[in-house]
Amino acid sequence: MPLTRCAVMVSGGGTNLQSLIDSRLPASIVCVISSKEGAYALKRAQKAGIETRVIQRKEYKTKKDFDRANLEALRECGAQFVVLAGYMQILGEELVKAFKNRIINIHPALIPSFCGMGYYGLHVHEAVLNYGAKVTGATVHLVDGGADTGPIILQEAVSVLPGDTPEALQQRVMEAEHRLLPRAVRLMSEDKLSVAGRTVTIKEDAMAKRAFLSVFDKTGIVEFAKGLAALDFEILSTGGTQRELEKNGVAVTNVSDITGFPECLDGRVKTLHPKIHAGLLAMRSNPEHMEQIKALDIAPIDVVAVNLYPFKQTIMKDGVTLKDAVENIDIGGPTMLRAAAKNWQDVAVVVDSADYEKVIDEITLNGQVTQETKFTLAAKVFQNTAAYDALIAQYLREQTGDTSYPEKLTLTYERVADMRYGENPHQTASFYREPLPVLGSLVNARQLGGKELSFNNINDANGALDTLREFDGITVVGLKHANPCGVGTADTVFNAYMKAYRSDTVSIFGGIVACNSEIDSATAAEMAKIFLEIVIAPSYTQTALDILCAKKNLRVLELPDIAAKRMENSKDAKKVLGGLLVQGSDNKLYEGEWKTVTKREPTAQEKRDLDFAFRVVKHIKSNGIAIIKDSATVGVGPGQTNRIWAAQIAIERAGDRCKGAVMASDAFFPFDDCVEAAAKAGVTAIIQPGGSIRDEDSIKKCDEYGIAMVFTGIRHFKH
User: Fold this and answer.
1) Choosing from 342, 480, 552, 575, which is the catalytic residue?
2) What is the mean pLDDT of residues 654-681?
3) Is 481 a catalytic residue?
4) Residue-level pLDDT at 206
């Protein structure tokens, strides 16, 4: 028989009382009794228009007299059952007997652990932390006269987090209490609790649990379904998932049997029906929702596992048509996921098979998935559907041929790995890749030896690869701190490496070396003589690999498509506070033909070195200067706040090798001082963009020293 009148007994602030007041229970709270005068719970009750009474132990000679006063008050207000919502007294035998199996208590831990006298308030949370427990929680149980010894009705686990304080843990446990207690009161008031000895059973109509499973990727789905079925869930499904489950002995209810409507339009419409979506979106704490779905003969859905049509895999296929791509845009799946995630308080929604085990474990332990986990799963759903939609939008936009920058930019990336740290040990970092493969990308590399890659390793290796792509012949690039410090092109890998190494034997130490040809044993032996962070190449001879992998700290990467050029329409982006800068990649080297602006034309050898120099300086941080001789860098001046300092650094690094060398600048010379410095060092030819209002000064200075200078008409700032 339903119980419609309850009394709440309190001693403190009354947050659990407030959760009952806010829950619009089928039972009325007819009285609030406090064991402490001035308890804030009394104010909460008075504000809600509930009768209050104060019955304090100190006002009675004996405990029995005190209990009888409470019992008399409960009878006077007509209470049919009692809720202890933070009541700091042990109830006497007479009162417990009068309300046998009709007194509910909430305890801030998972009984039988951390219960009994002394385990209340912060004390219980301090005990949990001192013990080193990984999980605590909340328990609703019936009162049998002992201290937290009665039969358990409901429990919810709460994870203990690293660095937790008693106060932080208390807050999360209280949130669980505020969910559990109203649910338990609702079950008792609706006569859905059956007590036999020390076992409380929730009657079958209250226990009905349903899970909807429909997945394209069926990894782990059979085991998940069997786990749910063992926990008394009815399994709903459709199509291929239903066939897979039934083949493996899982009883399945077809969604069409629920909706009364067959699948149609070649399976495009299966779950888009009120009997499914109302079951997902109905809020269990909202009586109007529950009355409506009951009247409409709709049952709630408690667990959803859905993953989506393989749009990404489809568009990656050779020769894919627009029709094929569009047909693999999932409609029902994202709709179900979003509906379930919106109602996360009541529905556990799983989009990642890695979460199946956690869901089963929590239901086994608590009878339901914890609110913390449900919220985490819901957040993951929106991350996944956002990425799914972003990829669809990107693909369809590309099909239109529109290369302009969109008004709304949505990007999606997939995590490759967490980094130990970022640029510095105090910074966190992760490595992400674009969802579709990009030829020549570092994410495609296979690590053959050495430690895991760091944030700086990846950033520098990417810079080395960008520089390497400028060259078609056998080339080796040495890079340090995002600047090429040595680049060499030759007839063999060994000679190219020696050119790059000799460019700057100091800076290459601890740097990155990238090569566009197979590394042989002779080259590997030379590389092994110094400390390098990374060697990356399209392939290695076995002997070379043995030599390099013998150095435990050297990261050896294999990237077969290392020479692949960037796509013409590729983009680069830089994050700024509150925004994002997006630009086309710097894929152009020259603007038309060179223009010789001096009296002397460069020689054939100078032209070859000038071209080499401009390819290198394009990848040096601005202001940047490169000095080249015989297809190898001899001096690099990177990242200075004025150009003459960059030139002076490059000249100093080159030393006597400047004689007969050429110089490249990433942007125009604002004055003729760089020409003056180059001439005194022995440089014979210069390549630069031109475009300064004082270009004529530099041209005259070149003519004065007999230096050939060409303008490219294009600059290559790199910040």
Assistant:
1) 342
2) 95
3) yes
4) 47
